[in-house]
Amino acid sequence: MKKFLESKSAVAGVIIIGTIILTAFFADFIVPNDPYFINIWDRYLPPEGFGNDSNYILGTDDMGRCVLSRIIMGSRISLLVAGIATSISALLGIFFGAVAGFKGGRIDAILMRFMDVILSFPSVLLAIAIVASLGPGMVNAMFAIAIVRIPAMARITRSMVLSVKQEEYVLAGYALGFSQGRILFKHILMNSFAPILVVATLNMGTAIVVEASLSFLGLGAQPPTVTWGRMLAMGREAIRRAPYITFYPGLAIVLSVLGFNLLGDGLRDIFDPQLKKKG
Amino acid sequence: MTKYFLYRLLQLIPILISISVLVFLMIHLAPGDPVLLLMGDEGTYEDYRRLQELYGLDLPLYQQYFRWVGNALQGNLGISIRQGAPVSQLIFERLGPTFELAIASVILATILGIPIGVLAAIKRQSFVDFFSMIFALIGVSMPPFWLGLVLLAYVSMNVGFFPMFGREGSIVGGLWIFLTSFNITPLYDGFRYLFLPAASLAIAMMAIITRLTRSSLLEVMGKDYIRTARSKGIGEKVVIFKHGLRNALLPVVTIIGIQFGFLLGGAVITETVFAWPGAGRLVVNAIIQRDFPIIQGGVLMLAIAFTLVNLLVDLSYALLDPRIRYQ
Fold first, then answer.
1. Which of A134, A148, B48, B222 is the most exposed, having the fewest neighbouring CB atoms within 10 Å of its CB?
2. Does A139 touch chain B (CB under 8 A)?
3. What backbone torsions phi and psi does residue B287 show, to the nearest 5 degrees?
4. Is the ipTM of this complex over 0.95?
């Protein structure tokens, strides 16, 4: 814990992520205006900042809806989709990677070749293709993001399992007659935890970007659900008239991704002091 | 080297087969009947059967696959449902612009990223270092297509030099015209249209290159042979650039190659933002119009291009570093 507080980037990351999670959780209470309320008389009001008569701190969009309120609401979908997708990819990736590294031989070869196939697509393109064939929507987007992030998890898990497998405490486990499952989960995976957590944290950032990309193309959660990616797409239509509509939702994306990247970098430094000295 | 080369080429075959199977299944196991989609709201059962037969959709799945792959190997990726043109022709027309965009981004990212990384490493823990690392961190966290939108909104709108959308001939074509007939306009126009999309794709990659150059150079500068070089009384500049940087750049070269592949994928959305007539935008439009032959062919071709680029990177890396070949 002391080490954690010493890492500036980890602390900064936690503060940013914490703020965004709290915002998403209490979104209903902190939105200044109803994010779904359409008011054609207030279309394209420019951002006026604080302390102004207007309620619209970040202005209004093409239907007179409050941009700030919509950004706050949109944080829910971003975190939800990225969070669930990352969890699914972590569960499956750890499972495949652990089995491949632990069993070795043919099972290893088959599982890892399968990962190679997923990796032979540019990940954004694969996610787009998957959603395009399953049909647009939040659940399919989650599924697609989960699939493209599995190989990263599987590879890191496999390499950790391969190195930990040879440790003496694992061999001791065999000598004591523990079952394979117990050795794999209690001894090997528990000791491979740190690097896996780092990759999962960095995956969250990627997942947020891919979700925004899918929503931007209209393949993510469908209206009236608010997503940051969709706000960008709507803003693009009015980019000459109201550039701020595209600016602020993107800033929210950058901030959340930055938070997870900072935390991931920080965790890596904490778990691997060697790397930090080099950097 | 030849042995390694052949080995890598052989490895390519199962990967290409798997890519084709995956792309095929993705479209064919998707919910919804493509024939009904083709027919629209009208048509009889006979029409339905005829279309099914025309596209071979009445055959068993594995026969459809072999038929599709067989045709694809002969350069036939089917006919676009909406545009009526051969898919292969549509794709090949647009692969050029996609590669042009990706290559321009790689060049931009490299010529800016490496010097900044070197500077940050040399002036370690100075303001230069601090700011370049902050910049790199933000650069990595930025979705390229959003950066593209911001450049459109705030640069293109205010600086008339950069047009908002589209593409006006290729840079290579423009260069050719300039060299043969001393007319610079096509080259100039090509550059104007290319710059903003390339810059928006380049920033994230530049951030990665900067970070890696810095950490790699710092690592190398701690090595024994650098101390030896210094103790021989060689000037610091020579030590950094000749002894340090040359060794530090190997991992940077790899990451540039890997990132180039990713640019081909990332370009999909950037192309849409800038209405760049590339293969990515073709696929995105096909998705919106549910034009399955284009989606299938486009994803297949982009995945193959991605795989080939990665192979080239691996091979060039083996050429640079003999240790790789013997692993």
1. B222
2. no
3. -65, -45
4. no
